[in-house]
Amino acid sequence: MTATHDFFAAPDLVRPDVTVEQARAVVLQEYGLTADVVELGSQQERTFDVRTEQGRYVLKVANPAFSDDEVAAQDVAMAHVTARAPDLQLPRTVPRLAGGLVAPIGSLRARLLTYVPGFPLAQQDFLAPVVCERLGSLAGAVTAALTDLEAPGLDRVLQWDVRHARQVCDLLAPHLGDVGRRDTLLRAVGQACDRLDALSTDLRVQPVHGDVTDDNVVCHRDADGRAEPTGVIDFGDVGLGWVVGDLAATCTSVLHHDPDRPLAVLDVVRGYARRMPLTEPEVEALWPAIVARAAVLAVSGVHQGIIDPGNRYAVSAQEREWQMLSAAVQLPAEVATAALRDLLGLPTRLVAIGALLPLLTGLGDVEVLDLSTTSPLLHDGDWLAPDAETTLTGHRPGATRYGEPRLTRTVLDSREVPRTVALGIELRLATPTPVRAPFAGRVRDVGDAVVLAGAEVDLWLTGLEPGPRGDVAAGDLLGSAERLTVQLCTARGHRPPAFTRPDEAAAWRVVCPDPSALVGLELSGVPASAADVLTRRGAALAGVQEHYYDAPPRIERGWRHHLMDTDGRTYLDAVNNVASIGHAHPRLTRAVARQWELLNTNSRFHYASLAEFSARLADLLPDPLDTVFLVNSGSEAVDLALRLATAFTGREDVLCVAEGYHGWTVASDAVSTSVADNPRALTTRPAWVHPLPAPNPYRGAHRGPDAGPLYVAEALELVRQVERPAAVLCEAFYGNAGGIPLPDGYLPAVYDAVRAAGGLCIADEVQVGYGRLGASFWGFQQQGVVPDIVTVAKAMGNGHPLGAVITRRDVADAFADNGYFFSSAGGSPVSCAVGMTVLDVIEQEHLQDNAVRVGAHLRARFEELATRAPLIGAVHGLGLYLGVELVRDRQTLEPATQETAAICERLLQLGVVLQATGDRLNVLKIKPPLCLTLESADFFVDTIAEVLLRGW
After folding, report:
1. What is the pTM of this model?
2. d(CA 770, CA 330)
3. 69, 77 contact by CB (below 8 A)
4. 351-406 residue pLDDT tens
5. Angstrom distance (rounded) from CA 342 to CA 338
6. What's the rounded Cα separation, in Å, for the pair 411 and 405?
7. Fold classification of 120-341 (topology level)
8. What CATH number was assigned to the domain covering residues 353-519?
């Protein structure tokens, strides 16, 4: 048996000196292959990409410091994992022509390995949670497969083995020229190794790969365009090591992909633990092992760059490796471990706060302040003021709530998750009040705070007037305060942040327990989780009443073109055309409140607003459209319009447009042919419904700028075949397809033909009307036609259930033969107040003009983005009714359906609410409130650009 490598005996491992010409020659001489050879990157070996007519290979030249047994162990390990995890793609060693697996290059040893197809995960900029979980699962499978491996050459002393992390960093740290970085690294690895040393006897040791990282994991694209890890390469670090060290290597490699979110490693651990369950000591050791691994990478990269300055692979990785360490030390080990324990279902011990003495007594009447998303204090956007927390609560005595996500801490138009969750409480007292130690400990000043370090927990106080320092007993006076912030922290030596991100809050709450009991008040403000509320929804609500997103946030507030969840996160609302004038418009909320205080009843009663609103609606339309029906929704409006047409004509056949959607009532559903809304739409239409071919010049049967006349001809032929149509119904803009305008001349020709056959023309303006197109108030005006009946809803009520049908007087009168018409809430006093206020705001705040300006800006920016993002096939629409169609191929127009769904999920993570539309669900439908600003529009496009260019 040959001796194995000991890093500390020979720490300067420079790559062996091998040229491309030598590599090409050995491939020809030893394997009989004529090849094109290109060098690949490597830290301490030489690797070459070998391309031949017979296939593709990788030539690896081992560092001469490694023994024959160590090199052979790599081949044994690859074969071992292949046999036990056949679902994984791994390289295999190619035998030489003369036999054996190792070919000489002078005194060096080379091996030819089969090429594992795919791309390295490191090429994927952003790693979605599902990708991290897949990576963890693959890593767990490799570790599990190596459990029973036996081979000479495994007992090595490698610098990458976290069992040696402290010694490696102590040896190499002098090479760090940046003293600040050196101190940070040594402090971090020292604290991590102290924890690891205390756990080391309980940590499993076995053969491990040692480097299942984003550099060495090979991927393919799955159906939604995300990376699917399928294989592992480079067994050069195989040897004995901690199981938890093997997992730490994988976790550390994901940190640089999203360095502001270190708990992304939870997804890796979830996948790993399913294949290779962890023991409790390993869970406790994992975060320190991640810190230790990151420290070794950072210091080794600098050292390698010094001893081998021509190694571009090592030098280029240095900043990335420092990013990993910076991300790992963002969180105290106690916080990260609490998150890991919760993930894996392990219990967490909490400090018994209730057993402590009170911090303050005799507080008197103190108001508990509500700064949450649903707070009644935060109306009319007041929470946006920089000093909102002070001005909203005034100068009266008050206390804030622990664990409460504060809306006052949110940030508009930001891809970063804001730190909204309070980890302490703040007291505003009437007079200076004595503050006493709730437990014995040592008092010291730390910056602007005073910390009382006890046996189990530290008490952090800010705002405390000078008092005693040093050792104190429970009940001793610490000083006095009129405004005091109180926090507890069990992570000794760490000053806890005042606020944390919602996704880290549960772990921080374990480390920073609720201090409310210290002041004798109930100050907990932790809201019910979105998941809990979703479970209650699912238990009571019909499952067919769907919701957006796989794990939807709990949205409880809106303001203008933004939505707020109960975590205090703000989202740009890019899809809510219902809220035409913006969420929670003060004029509208006041108008509703005023009217509800006066009267709300049904339209059979006589009140002025019914007459005023009806006349105002009629005045918005061209003659002869002068008669109004008020209803509750777009579905009801379309249903009524169809009944009006059949009553007036005495016929029942209706022409509609294929792939359109018009509602959910019996009649409106009958004329809806979108398979996205009803998968059986094309096979369940009643005989009286006749869909016209979808007039889509982008992806329809006829394409391009000359397709219009062909669609017109098809439509006219169907009108001729129907013979006696009651009506034709369509949107003036092809809404379901993503805002595609109808071909020029389409509606004039179809309207003329239907009218010549004795039918009526119905314009569905539920989505495109009310100024959304900018260039015109109504969609049908784009085609230069006047319909016989117009349906409208959505924008009319800004979220209030309000719709209308506007028609000619003779058409309306013909409906009397069917009896009277009545809608309980349609045209109620409150509905009329809502309708008139919405029209006032659209006019007086120039929202139609805003749709022109911002819509043009959006469209221009998306068209520019399409030159950089191949997934964008086309940009459709006008004004603030746009559609960005995503395709896998711009020639075949293969829809990027799965990618679109995944992109919408990623956009939600970055603070944008957006959804897909179209029968293929591959069009991003862009229909924001009409008050969208240019600044928010830029944030919107920039965020979509980040997703399309960085990944989802």
Report:
1. 0.94
2. 50
3. no
4. 777 777 899 887 777 889 999 999 998 999 999 998 888 877 666 789 999 999 99
5. 6
6. 13
7. Aminoglycoside 3'-phosphotransferase; Chain: A, domain 2 (3.90.1200)
8. 2.70.70
